Amino acid sequence: MNRITAAFMAGMVAGSAHAHHSNDYHFDRNVGVTVSGTVKLFRFINPHARLLIDVAGEDGAVVTWDCEMAGSNGLMRRGWTRDVFQPGDEIVVQGFAARRHETECYFDTAEFADGRVVTLDDSFGSGAAAPAPRVARTAIPEGVPDFSRVWQRSGGGGGGGPQLGGPNRFAGVLNDAGREALERYDPVLDDPALTCSPVSVRRLWGNNDLTEIVQTEDRVVIRHEWMDAVREVRLDMDEHPADLEDRVLGHSIGWYEGSTLVIDTVGYQAGMLAQHPGMPHSNRLHTVERLTLGPAGDSFELTIVSEDALYYTAPVTDTRTFRATDQVPREYNCTHPELGR
User: Between 291 and which of 29, 184, 261, 301 could a Cys-Cys bridge form, CB atoms 3.0 to 4.6 Å apart?
Assistant: First the structure.
């Protein structure tokens, strides 16, 4: 199969809205590939849909290429279905090369035998899957800011990841113990998302998947579409229990300060605050999230302050903006068939 490096391909692929910098750890955006063959299977799954293409070599032997793309939930919101590619379709795919596997690529465009072209940025006006029914909104106590709806990060959420070989902006915050933990971490092989872990609170708020917030008098339930993560924030507790069992997403209590929902979380398992290039945290991680509702009630500003007495020399602060959406969260059902998961 022809593997090419050319200025045209490098520019085309690197310019794709879906060529996220975090993909640099798995794919080389400077090396274009052309894959001509027959569709074997279109795995319409999360976190990445995968197009399998049978390619016949000059000796007649068939090799199956595996081309990764955006996840099915995001694609469905743009009208994609699992029928976009059918087994038996003759197809030519342009993409960019995997760093470790000769027969893998990241998908960018496909041309069918009849001349039709599909790009990863395409939206389809028809054929979108019917939305799931919305969960009925609960009554919000008087005087409490109303976050009970579905939210999506403003301005997307996937294109600002780190580049392979670029500076680790977190490194200056780590103390000696934190740097030792970072040295033990391989961002390719040890990425917690490969085990379908929600990774961290920071990671949950850091993508373009949907988040639904449901408020009651004594708690707030946050359902993140990514990894089907569900968090419960207790409003009826002033302190965290002393005998907490460490968990990936910790134990959260919360309260309101005017138009702001404050979420205080401890009891984390040691893990990664950020997957790429890596920002480890210990089980002493303490996060405070502040969600401040906008005047119109259709947006909020999020600030996350992360402190770790064992690993960090200073707090790590992240800010993001979210807007209300009429879109409906779907089950994520994380699947990694390439890893047998």
Answer: 261
Q: If residue 10 lies in a helix (H) or strand (E), which one and from where to where?
A: helix 7-14
Q: What is the token pair recorded at 93?
A: 């795919």
Candidate CATH numbers 2.40.128, 2.60.40, 1.10.10, 3.40.50; the one for domain 150-324: 2.40.128
Instruction: Tell me the C-alpha to C-alpha distance, in Å, between residue 274 and each of 71, 123, 203, 217, 299.
Output: 20, 30, 7, 33, 25
pTM, entire model: 0.86
Residue 180 gets which letter from DSSP? H
Strands 251-257 and 229-234, how do they pair? Answer: parallel
What percentage of the chain has pLDDT greater than the value 90? 75
Q: Which token pair is 318?
A: 């992240």
CB-count exposure of residue 116 (10 Å: 0-12, 13-18, 19+): exposed
- The predicted model gives 45-50 an average pLDDT of 96
Which residue would you say has higher pLDDT here, 174 or 162?
174
- Rg (the chain; Cα; Å): 22
Q: Where in the chain is the domain with CATH 2.40.50.140?
A: 7-130
Beta bridge pairs of residue 151: 211, 324
In this prediction, residue 21 has a pLDDT band, given cuts at 50, 70 and 90, of very low
DSSP per-residue string spanning 230-278: EEEEESS-SS--TTPPPBTT-EEEEEEETTEEEEEEE-BPSEEEETTTT
Query: Residue 282 and residue 270: Cα distance in Å, rounded?
Result: 4
Q: Which of 142, 94, 139 is nearest to 117 (CA)?
A: 94
Q: Per CATH, is 7-130 categorized as 3.40.50.10090?
A: no
Q: Both tokens of residue 272?
A: 């990664």
In a 3-state reduction of DSSP, which class is residue 107? strand
Distance from the Cα of residue 148 to its chain's centroid: 22
